[in-house]
Amino acid sequence: MGIEIISTGGTHATLAAHGIEARQVSEITGFPEILDGRVKTLHPRIHAGLLAVNDNPHHRAQLEQHGISPIDMVVVNLYPFEQTIAREGILLHDAVEQIDIGGPSMLRAAAKNYQHKVVIVNPDRYDSILQEMRSNGGVVSAQTCGTLAREVFHHTSAYDAVIAQYLDRTAGEEKPLPVVLHIIAPGDQTLRYGENPHQHAALYGSFSSMFQKLHGKELSYNNIGDIAAAAHLAAEFDEPTVVIVKHMNPCGVGSGATLTEAYGKAFATDTKSPFGGIVAVNRPLDLQAAEKINEVFTEVVIAPDYPPPVLDFLRKKKDRRIVRQTVDLRTLTGWDVKSVPGGYLVQDRDGYRSSGEDFRFVTRRAPTEQEQRAMRFAWRVAKHVKSNAIVYALDDRTIGIGAGQMSRFDSARIAAMKAEEAGLSVRGTVAASDAFFPFADTVLELIRAGATAVIQPGGSVRDDEVIRAADEHNIAMICTGTRHFRH
Fold this sequence. Notes:
Number of domains: 3
CATH topology of the largest domain: Rossmann fold
Number of strands: 20
Strand content: 15-25%
Strand order of the largest sheet: 7-12-11-10-8-9
């Protein structure tokens, strides 16, 4: 199209090798590349050519006075800093050399002047830009130029954020949380709406690669939250386990020799709530378990994998979402982020998994081996129940779950009531509380319902009163020393 190309060292050599004519930047600047290539495009003949406003007579006169030609298009791929620091054993010196200076400077200059310049940072744009130029006599529309400029500033801001985070980590003064919060998350998909139809919503980041939808309607905002909640709880268990979630709260959890057995235990906890719920399993889903799940209307099924016959069977219901989980969530680190007026609350994810070695027996009666197994099971579940949380359980299943109440006493009563509604007996179960008991009344309610042992963090000013109530009724109690609030 008769466009003159200006290029720097490595790119110029590649163009020449493919028979594409291009001028060296040094021909334009009249100055050689120096400092091992650190300085080559940082020159007035380049940046004036980018920043000059075409229809400004004063700018045109200055360009003519200094013999500078306008530059109409900038195409830059930045040095691969993020890929460099991902390499094992990379040294700080080598990483710093991959901090691009000239590239972002040219991109930002052209993007600032987008009404008169075309600036391209995304290789995925190459074909569409070429097509537009061929269709319009070499011209790119003002609308496209504006879109491209926005992409540049999104790209360079993310590039700088990655550098800043890396330098924070390597400064020897690494803090558990960032000094400045950078959330670098490309848009994934626009959602139909948020929690409610009048709210706009979108998904950002790499969730869709970790949870791949294989079949069914598009995932909703609420589906995505439920999937995360169900998968995190399923990841707490090593044995075959099924988790059923409704509104980000577990309504049943079961473990067994098979997923079919585990599903039966989870479903029995609450036979009403699983309707329209989310089911997550921590093993590839087998056909027998899939057939059991299929008996109840289920919005989403999540599993690490699906053998072809299972996938074919589940696809018979066209709207049901089938999701493959591709990562072990126990290996992920990161933050929980919540918005508040004027800012964000940021914390480490609650990834703490206790082996039980730090548990303290605080009552006269120590728990039996079976009670200890049940307490560990209940404790893992309680960690994922909205506060205030109470969970009645055996060593392989939940019996009753009380979630999200303002009073822990009410959670205890609701958990027992839900068990009774499901035709389950709380007698002989253990109970888990996500936080300490401020008074002995909730412990007495658990005892009245039939719990024989209680696991809780401890730390209340009335711990002595609580432990005394347990001793008076000959139940066992463990204090974990760790709280698991989930608001």
